[in-house]
Amino acid sequence: MTTPIAVTIAGSDSGGGAGIQADLKTFSALGVYGASVIAALTAQNTRGVTGIHDVPPDFVSAQIDAVFSDLAVNAVKIGMLSNPRTIAAVAAGLQKYKQEKIVLDPVMVAASGDRLLVPEAVETLRKSLIPQALVITPNLPEAAALLEGPLAQTETEMREQGEKLLALGARAVLIKGGHGHGAESVDFLIEPTAVVRLASERIATRNTHGTGCTLSSAIAAGLAKGLDLADSVRQAKAYVTAAIAASETLKIGHGHGPVHHFHAWWTPPA
């Protein structure tokens, strides 16, 4: 039996709660070997982002060549890519290595509200990467930004925006309702032939740092293990919900704390 392998292509979070660090923790927690391609360095913590240093696109390409020429990669998660040249390098690399199980999290804004993607990169994302993705996983603000439209306020509007995003070329869209209101946190998995409503209890906590990164990498982990997309999404949502519920047991930083990626493995001392 081969070892399932997933690769994250994203930015590094110096605070450890999001980005590459969250992705690798998620892969490990779900029984998948994780490798990484670092596209940017960030100076950030639970309070916010104070600096972004882009990795030169040719070095991003060099990392892709190093990883994909050696490892038998089963799935790819893409997170923060902050400029058009980096997006183009990643798109070219994934085409070169014929990757199909691609989970694209169009990271634009951190939980703290800090913008992580320059405006001119959005069009490159639409044209170069979205058409390669098996699934894209925007939250409500990201969906609105990609469509240059208003924030969805109802489940009907969420579905409508998801269907418009599907028309951009992705094979599926998971539009996430974590920024919404109400007792339930509702997501919609929208494919050309089916729509699945996924609901979980909305958990009252400020510890939401890295939830989007964690969800998308959990989906990639499921795909790497051979699950189909719908089952990968269901597994991922259950994992993230439990990680958020356990986040209050961690005492990390003074702002938006991280979710507890290893909630099934260890509990911090009281």
Task: Quickly describe the structure.
With 270 residues, the protein is α/β, with parallel strands linked by helices.
Please, could you describe this protein's structure?
The chain has helices spanning 19-29, 57-68, 84-96, 121-129, 140-147, 155-166, 211-224, 229-245, and strands spanning 5-13, 33-45, 48-54, 75-78, 102-104, 135-136, 173-175, 184-191, 194-201. With 270 residues, the protein is an alpha/beta fold. The strands form two sheets. A six-stranded mixed beta sheet has the order 3-2-1-4-5-6. The longest helix has 17 residues, at 229-245. The mean pLDDT is 92.
Helix/strand/pairing class, anyone?
Answer: alpha/beta
Please state the overall shape, judged from the principal axes of the Cα atoms: globular
Give start-end ranges of low-pLDDT stretches: none
Assembly category = single chain
Gyration radius, in Å: 17 Å
**Count of DSSP strands:** 9
Instruction: Enumerate how many helices there are, as a single number.
Output: 8
For the record, the CATH architecture stands as 3-Layer(aba) Sandwich
CATH superfamily: Ribokinase
Roughly how much helix do the residues carry, as a percent range? 25-40%
- Order of SSEs, N→C? EHEEHEHEHEHHEEEHH
The first-to-last residue Cα distance is: 40 Å
Number of spatially distinct domains: 1
Write the topology of this structure.
Blueprint: E1 5-13, H1 19-29, E2 33-45, E3 48-54, H2 57-68, E4 75-78, H3 84-96, E5 102-104, H4 121-129, E6 135-136, H5 140-147, H6 155-166, E7 173-175, E8 184-191, E9 194-201, H7 211-224, H8 229-245
Parallel strand pairs: 1-2, 1-4, 4-5, 5-6
Antiparallel strand pairs: 2-3, 7-8, 8-9
